[in-house]
Amino acid sequence: AQSVAQPEDQVNVAEGNPLTVKCTYSVSGNPYLFWYVQYPNRGLQFLLKYITGDNLVKGSYGFEAEFNKSQTSFHLKKPSALVSDSALYFCAVRDGDSGAGSYQLTFGKGTKLSVIP
Amino acid sequence: DTGVSQDPRHKITKRGQNVTFRCDPISEHNRLYWYRQTLGQGPEFLTYFQNEAQLEKSRLLSDRFSAERPKGSFSTLEIQRTEQGDSAMYLCASSLVGQRTGQFFGPGTRLTVL
Q1: Cβ-defined contact of A90 to B102 (cutoff 8 Å)
Q2: Segment (H or E) for B90
Q3: Contact across the interface for A104 and B108, Cβ inside 8 Å
Q4: Rg (CA), chain A
Q5: Mean pLDDT (whole number) for A63-79
Q6: Which pLDDT does position A99 carry in this prediction?
Q7: Measured between beta carbons, which residues in chain B are less than 8 angstroms from residue A43?
C-alpha cells in the first residue's frame, strides 16, 4: 500500500517570503512523486515530478521540490511567495516498480497555502 | 484548448436517479483515469483504462458505478441509483504510455445528490 501525509492543513506566508509545503510518503517500491495545485473551481494542475536523478526538482511558476529518500519526504518550496500562489496544493505518489500493475496516484489531503500581501 | 475536458461541469440530481459523465482525454493519450474528490480530501482513485481496456478498479467503485472507454478515446462514468454519499467532484485524467509524466487532469464534474 502507498500513502501520502501532508501534516499541515494550512500554511500562511507573507508575500516575498520563502514558502515550504511539507509532504512525506510511504511506498514499497521506488517512489514517483508529484505536486499538483488546485485553484477554486478548477481541476488539478501539474507542478512538478520526481522520477529519478537530481534530488532537487524544478517545476512550473518558480516552484521546486526536494526529494529526501532517508526522510521519505518531498517538500515543495519557493524562494519568494506571490499572492497568486494562494491555492490548494496536493502531493501524490505512485509506486515506480509497479510495472504493468497499478498506475494509480495516491494523494495527500492537501495543504491550503495563503500568501498574505 | 487541447487539455482534458469533462462534461457536464455540474450535475444536480435526486437520490435514486442515474447519472452519466463524459471525459475527453488529451488526444494522443492512451491512459485514462477516474478519481473522486470530496470536500477537504485529496482525489481518490476509482479506475483506469489503457486504450479501451479497463485494467484496474478501486474498491471504492461499487457495483452501482460503471466506466467505459469503448473506442479507446473518450470515456463515460455512470452512477446508477445515486445516493447522497455520491456527492463529490469526479475528476478525469489522462497520460501517455512510456512517458513518465504526471497525469493531466480535467476540470471535473461536480455532482450533487439531493
Answers
A1: no
A2: strand B88-95
A3: no
A4: 14
A5: 96
A6: 58
A7: 4, 91, 105-108
